[in-house]
Amino acid sequence: MKSNVYKYILLLVVGFITFSCEDELPTKLDYSSYTYSDMDENGGNWNQVLLSGPEQITIDVPEDVSSQAYQAELAELKSIANNLDQSQQEVVAYWTNNPVVRWNEIALELIAKYNLIPGPNPDGTYTLPNPANPEGPPPFPFAHPPYASRALAYMSVAQFDGLITTWHYKFTFNRPMPSDVDNSIQSAYTGNSIPSYPADGATIAAASRDILSAMFPLEKEYLAQKAEEHMSSLMWAGINVESDILAGEYIGEEVAKIALDRARNDGMSKAQCPKPVSDSIKNAAFERYGWKWENLEIPTRPVGLTPLFGKVQMWNVPNVEVVRPPVPPAPGSAEYNENVDELIHFKNNMTNEWRRIANFWQDGLGTYTPPGHWNRIANEFIIKYQLNPLRSARVFAYMNMAIMDGGISCWDAKYHYHYPRPIQNIKGFTTIAGTPNFPSYTSGHSVFSASAAEVLSYIFPQEGNLFRNWAIEAAESRIYGGIHWRFDADVGTEQGINVANYTINVAKTDGAD
Amino acid sequence: MKKIYTGYTYSSLLKFAGWVLFILLLNLNKANAQTPSDAIMMKQKQSCVALIFDYGTWDQYWEGTELRSNATIATFKRYTYMPMIAIGLHDRLNLIVMTPYVETKSTQPNGGKFEGAKGFQDLSLSLKGEFLKKKVGEDLLELFTTIGFSTPMSNYLSDYRPYSIGSGTNEWSFRGIGQYKMQNGLYFRGTVSYLLRGTTEAERDYYYNNGSYYTSTMDVPSAWNYHAGIGIRLFDNSLRMEVLYEGLRSTSGDDIRAYNAPQPTNKVNFDQIGANAQYYFKNIKGLGLLVNYGQIFNGRNIGKTTSFSGGVTYIFSI
User: Fold this and answer.
1) Whole-prediction pTM value?
2) Is B157:B168 a contact under the CB 8 Å cutoff?
């Protein structure tokens, strides 16, 4: 009997150890280099967002491939690319021939890292993150959804404009890839042959590095190291010689400067206004409509999140008032009462499916935010449809401009109407999602998601139903979470679509379709 | 990993259906998935059922190693109702089954207005074997080993801390127990266990754990668990009293970030002191009472929990 017992125990232990090896959990999108579905040889003629034309940034005419200078570069490349160690090969495999996706993932990771709301001090006051003293505490920035939408928009626009210029010069100078000059060199990546001067990878690396360094100043060193690794990988992969990389990097740096000039003056630095301004906004809403949102945290936060984000310069909408939604139902009205009943119904009869939806789209503190969630979705479809880096940057540029415009419009409505949250108006109400520090109407998730889904549906029309249904689910998730009224979600979805159409109309005439 | 146990445990355990009685006294800090860690073995032809109620509360927690309060949560409360059955399969082999029901909430007022959580937590099965019983003069040295397995009984959400009612993962525990009983009633006991934990499923498919994770699967850190107790048996073994230290050390995991919610991937450590007592009625055959007190005094990514529990046990022959 006794020996039997130990036999079973031994069996269990051995069995467990055998089966306990787990697969590594994914920390990035799993893809390798691929053949682009289209080269977009005319991409250099597309309209740019910030640049007046591709030659606003000028680079030198490259040395001919027969020149001594080029041949020396080629010899150097050959000795490097043919002698890679294991870690260099891994780096090459990581960056792939569509590094737009990788830089987007880096941005999302930084957003998640910095999306932490400052807690109260021991005396009950709150200290705001301060760009003049980024170390804090609290560290700068607090990468909340409006901040995230803006960081992503500037990065994507800089990548897009930079790549249009790069494409323009690629197909103007037509310098062949090293592997086309010397067949003893092999590109590490499968796929298309593309003129190598200037290096598109270097443009992406430099533009992304410089924009993200401005948005996340404490990550400057990390980003410089990432960009250096990326640019080195272009030689390790055998796809660019040094002069290709230097020219590409120059374009990236120059376009980033132009984008950051806009960013400095877009009004974001004033969005987190002082308490007197915040109070006057609140009182104006109360006088106009008879209600006002209050922060119910303990201790109370004196100012909501970025009350003046609605005044930030928009990308494609002429002014924020043209997309401002109508007045929400007044508390006590029939529609309002129905909304109250619905929220109480969800709370008292919470199903697994409602809970799953609330959590799946929550994208709350400590995550990549709703704008980040839609960038992650875009990444997946960019790989699915095998877009080239320029096309990929176009997806992100238009989507992230629409998301940021959506956020600006949403924040305009939030602080114009200053509508209370469910926990403020329904006595004893509790939620399964955290109630954010800003007014209810309209729902940020709804506007961000509808704007993103609308642009993605324009780009991938065959997937439109999917994207639009996801956007609606994301909007409804906030009702299940208990933090939004249904009219916040429904009107927010319409608002997001309206805003996105301004961007889509620009996209339709940029020369890419 | 989640599938491997089904082939072995349930059916093989049932093979040993010889009924012996066993009583388990434990600190019911079940959120940390304790399994039988004492040094009591019952004789054949007896069984025991128990119902234990545990109340745990904290108003401060360790964010990483930093002790803090948080008015978003205010005071946290956890109630555990623990039905348990202990079945002696043999004089030297016991099976213990536990099915805790847990409820959590915050006190009012709080700044978060979060809904609490409740539900059946983890089904826990443990096999305890005694493999050494040796006289040392008039004293007695005993060594035991426990192998335990627990798995979620309901689809509670583990990624809803601090309110989630459990870790939502399968856990194997491998425990060694040594006890030295003196003739005068004093005893000393120590245990070392390894809690091998799997993964849990969140309802989001992205999270940050010192970097991005693009999956709903979260790794729940495995841990070492230690107990050291000194106790005494009085009144012809009808009263047993014990003071106890318990420690937990996770072998991996991240820290709660500043003013942010905990998550199942966190590295949870604690040191707790406690005391417990068990009393068997002499005139009501088979009936016993137990009480327990515990206080976590040092920790990482866990509430500074004070817990009280009490329960009724009933021993009967088969």
Assistant:
1) 0.93
2) yes
